[in-house]
Design a protein that fits this description.
heterodimer, A: alpha/beta, D-Maltodextrin-Binding Protein, domain 2, 2 domains, globular, B: mainly alpha, MetI-like fold
Chain lengths: ~425, ~290
Amino acid sequence: MHKSLLGALAVSTMLSPIAASAQTEVQFWHAFTGRLGELVAAQVEEFNASQSDYVVVQSHKGNYSETLNSGIAAFRAGEHPHILMVFEVGTATMMSAQGATRPVFEVMAQSGATFDPDAYIGSVKGYYTTTDGDMLSLPFNSSTPVLWVNRNAFEEAGVDPDTDLSTWQNVGETLEALKAGGSECPLVTAWQSWIHLENFSAYHDVPFASQDNGFAGLDTELMLNGEAQVAHLTAMGEWAQDGKFIYTGRRNEGGANFRSGECALFTESSAGYAGIKAEAEFDFDVRPLPYWEGVGNAPQNTIIGGASLWVMEGHEEEEYAGVGEFLAFLSSSDVQAQWHQDTGYLPITSAAGEATRAAGFYEENPGTDVAVIQMTANEPTANSKGLRLGSFDQIRGIIDEELEAIWAGDKTAQEAMDSAKERGDALLRRFESANG
Amino acid sequence: MEKRVKFKGWLLPALLIAPQVVISAVFFFYPAGQAIWQSLFIPDPFGLSMQWVGLGNFEFLLSDPFYRASFVTTAVFSILVTLCSMIPALFLAVIADRLIKGSGVYRTLLIWPYAVAPAVAGVLWLFMFNTRVGVVSWYLGQLGYDWNHVLNGGEAMGLVVVASAWGRISYNFLFFFAALQAVPKSVIEAAAIDGAHFWRRFWTIVLPLLSPTTFFLLVVNIVYSFFETFGVIHTITAGGPQQTTTILVYKVYSDGFVSQDLGSSSAQSVILLIVVGLLTVLQFKFIEKRVHY
């Protein structure tokens, strides 16, 4: 132990001569690589340069799941960071871990940094606050699903690219026309459970799980086998069988098919913007996510995906002051506005959104505000506030398996969703007994 | 004839086996004991609290049809990997053994794949069979076959088996080749003079003489397919589609380290421990009797 500590000290001294001074160090673990990784590193550098009391050290720890798991493993070993990035799916796990985390509202109050939780837009804030309105983790990157259109692919198939795609009824007819026009890949999706079940339910104002989607208690049960969801998945399953919907994988594998120009329509996060803009050699549009006309209260509002920053317990008190300073810096509207414009993630404070609009960004980059409008169009209901389910990463795995059974034609949508409910509920009961 | 060394006193023998005992205790008995203990609880991921459930974790597992199916998947997978890695290896070894010129080059080339780490091998095969950019799937498409291991369980299983067996062929080749070199030439020549053709000599003389090697490789390959194919499965299918490639070890990992359900994961380790123990006993009890040393 002693030796490894000395070794770590020696290494960190060699790598970062600045950290050797009397500044307090704050560890920040995140899940970003590539362009996003560079942008996070730039934010950290800017913060470090702006003051001389604290040094934030950022490290990449793998994808979202891996980052969360490294954080948990490190906590068990007593070597956890101060700030851990956790994706929205891990929210319930972190909320239940009282004693491992320190709520953001407490950190902010203690550090005395200027911080206003009401600056965050409702649907983002709602995801990460308790029912009493206390903010537990700091929203960082949030996005929502939209419909991406390859205009060239439409024209090649002889379909008007300006056709109305606001409802799935219209999309269904368009897929038929695209297929008839020779398109090999009329529709592809990323994150199927997030878009076609979780957001679908919120958007149509039907419950995904009981107890207000888990916000009201741990004794929640999945309700994703409802009439609306099954009808949607039945239609998607038929499209899959007819070769109108092409399934490529559970994560964002479909992005490659869309960016290469192969696919006409793509349901994907608004944060796909940076990649599509950089790679697509065709004209593209961003449209709101389609809804079924006449089902539920559609269009209600969509929910977020992405990650928030959790502060972990068990460090020296003066270090938390540094954490507070850094989080306050991240939530300032300049930093937020820049982040939104660079990445396609939502402007999570109203001020950042206004600043972006005032700078004329939306006029220069049409479609970048579709996601914002879609998310904030209506006041969120109990069904569209978000999801708070334990073991949700695992449950998403189950949902993915059952969806694959529908796409392959092995099960009907009703059978698959009944099975997903049964298997998912078993995990929810386990989570309840582990955390009850 | 039994060979036995007699020691005077107990200190020296105890000292001699001490390193092995210590290693077994630290790396086997201690973690196995911990797994058994943890399998009786549902802990929360952060290790802040534990909920005693007795045999509840086992009950939960055995009532899960996907877990029961995972036994069958594991059996199918292990048998296929073992066959697909041993038969071609034996064939290549026999061919290489007959070579007079250039056998060194062949041997070196055949041993190469063993140097490739399982996860890297997985990515390699995944690229070739990628449904969108894969070379092989493109050719299959040209032939009118629509390859899609993302949705088709049989194709996914085939792919992970081939990717797992591929690197293993080299390892088996090496052992078979060495064993073939040790087969006495005089016996084979005698049979040849009696008029037995090549394959007959192979079946009646060479194969029985190879049986100790074959038995050793059988045990080693089954252990390999149980425990070391993890990297291949993780990179190619992550257990999907619909858990058709989730073998027992992969489920231990995904439940324990992805889903943070350490109670269930420990219970699965305990079950796996029992299964592998039984399997080893069976192998030594029944198959070893037919091995001629």
